[in-house]
């Protein structure tokens, strides 16, 4: 048996915990008007749309019991209202500034470019460059600061996800291959950043995001050294 208008309205009001007087105030009518609908003394009303809007329910459901009481999917906002934007001051720092309590420094191998392409020769020139990370960020990735390191990326094989000029951060303690993970590897004396997939028979698929220009490669797993798993990357827009 279908519900009456009065029953549907009582259900909707009970769900949001609103009183007759509060609903009446929201839509600009008297409490007596709402009471007549709730008690069934009024079977039709010109206030269905404002009532439905105030209770965040579908007017079709309130009027005729058609469909669900509320929309089953919520449309996501494509943007942020200006009223919600908060200006945060930018704090600059250099290597001479002391670390905050929740900060750590990790090595940035600026002169070693990981190839998002066919590979680059390994270069151990460190030069002491460092990047700062919050401890909370590393904890979220399950990484310890002593195992974290950052490298620049050169080439387009991992575009558009990791485009040329990106900086990747790796966890050198995470060398176990998880299929589909992004890893920094050493292969044939070349440093590379690639997606890895294990295969039967001790084989490994080395994959690029830009697969149209850089097709899959297959290698013996013991010829590939895992330097670490990529846990973060940053991209600069030029």
Automatic annotation (TrEMBL):
Domain spans labelled HTH cro/C1-type: 9-62
Lineage top rank: taxon: Bacteria
MF annotations from Gene Ontology: DNA binding
PANTHER family: HTH-TYPE TRANSCRIPTIONAL REGULATOR PRTR, PTHR40661
Gene3D superfamilies documented for this protein: lambda repressor-like DNA-binding domains (1.10.260.40), Umud Fragment, subunit A (2.10.109.10)
Keyword line: DNA-binding, Transcription, Transcription regulation
Species the sequence originates in: Budvicia aquatica
Coiled-coil segments: none
InterPro entries per the UniProt record, alphabetical: Cro/C1-type_HTH, Lambda_DNA-bd_dom_sf, LexA-like, LexA/Signal_pep-like_sf, Peptidase_S24_S26A/B/C
Cross-referenced Pfam families: HTH_3, Peptidase_S24
Protein name, entry field: Uncharacterized HTH-type transcriptional regulator HI_1476
Entries under CDD domains matching the protein: HTH_XRE, S24_LexA-like
């Amino acid at each position: 048996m279908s519900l009456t208008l009065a029953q549907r309205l009582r259900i909707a009001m009970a769900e949001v915990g609103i009183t007759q007087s509060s609903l009446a105030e929201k839509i600009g009518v008297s409490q007596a008007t709402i009471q007549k609908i709730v008690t069934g003394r009024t079977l039709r009303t010109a206030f269905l749309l404002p009532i439905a809007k105030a209770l965040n329910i579908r007017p079709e459901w309130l009027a005729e019991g058609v469909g669900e009481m509320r929309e089953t999917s919520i449309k996501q906002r494509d943007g942020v209202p200006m009223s919600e934007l908060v200006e945060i001051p930018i704090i600059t720092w250099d290597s001479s500034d002391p670390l905050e309590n929740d900060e750590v420094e990790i090595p940035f191998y600026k002169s070693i470019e990981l190839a998002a392409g066919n590979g680059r020769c390994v270069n151990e020139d460190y030069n002491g460059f460092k990047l700062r990370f919050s401890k909370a960020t590393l904890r979220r990735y399950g990484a310890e600061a002593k195992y974290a390191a950052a490298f620049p990326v050169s080439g387009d094989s991992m575009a558009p996800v990791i485009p040329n000029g990106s900086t990747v951060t790796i966890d050198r303690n995470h060398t176990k291959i998880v299929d589909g993970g992004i890893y920094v590897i050493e292969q044939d004396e070349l440093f590379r950043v690639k997606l890895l997939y294990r295969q039967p028979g001790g084989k490994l698929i080395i994959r690029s995001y830009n697969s149209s220009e850089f097709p899959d490669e297959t290698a013996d797993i013991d010829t590939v050294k895992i330097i670490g798993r990529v846990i973060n990357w940053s991209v600069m827009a030029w």
